[in-house]
Amino acid sequence: MKSGFVSFLGRPNASKSTLLNRIVGQKLAIVSDKPQTTRTRVAGVKNYDEGQVVFVDTPGVHKPTHRMNRRMVDVALEAMREVDVLALIVDASVKPGPGDRYLLDLLKDVKTPTILVLNKVDLIAKPKLLPMIERYRSEHAFAEFVPISATDGTNVDVLERLFLQYVPEGDPLYPPDYLTDQTERFFVAEIVREKVLQYTHDELPFSTAVIVDRFTEAGVEGTMELYCTILVDRESQKPIVVGKAGAMIKKIGTAARAELEHHFEKRVYLDLHVKVKSEWRDDDRLLDELGVRNGEG
Ligand SMILES: Nc1nc2c(ncn2[C@@H]2O[C@H](COP(=O)(O)OP(=O)(O)O)[C@@H](O)[C@H]2O)c(=O)[nH]1
Ligand SMILES: [Mg+2]
Which end of the chain is more exposed for a tag (fewer CB within 10 A), N or C? Predict the structure, then answer.
């Protein structure tokens, strides 16, 4: 049998989280069209006839501007170490930039087999792929090059076969029904944050966090009670999240509740509340509480 770890590495928005969800067949990591959505490491386990693979989704590697971002990048870099396979995920639909250069430099002395995954091929014309692959081939000794589309699933099965091929022999690391290291509490906070990202304006995403103040398992009535606080950075951002006569927060709450009910297969009572906390992205204690891990941790 085979078993091992595969880490996803890449720039923000390359589609790492979409790929994780696609492979494990369930939404573990939230996804958005805004960069820097993923703030910490999320692992998902998949069992195959040939063995078990643990996939590790990471925050996108970018230039850090706050302590939070420093931690995010550290988490991503940490995930490069002591794994069996690396997957460098690139968005094939956008022009390579300095961020790609930085990632290639990071890989320079890395001995771990690294697969280049060219993602979002549904958005590009096929003839563009080969020159792109050739360029990456000249930049680094990648083990394989795999064009995929994480949203429509093109070639993802081929990629999974390759991952299995590169992980070593070994016994499974987790029991067969183990799916993720994520807690339910963290998942709740992430789903609420995803809806905030989805419905609010562009200036908001980086500066929003969600804290679960109270999480009550379904009681006799079979209803889970969830009380969450949405943190924003500035007073001016609060009305964006609350909306006119509370319309926005209601929309966020309705969408989050529907998804949580579907996920937990239980009735959910969701209470959302918005609070201004300036500079929270540089508040170590709060970052600890939010689960934005320290790279070393
Ligand atoms: N067209 C297309 N869009 C994709 C694909 N994979 C992801 N996306 C979109 O790209 C955005 C970023 O995806 P996400 O998984 O959050 O990226 P991450 O930051 O690398 O984790 C989202 O809006 C996704 O819906 C793909 O294969 N094709
Ligand atoms: Mg992500």
Answer: C
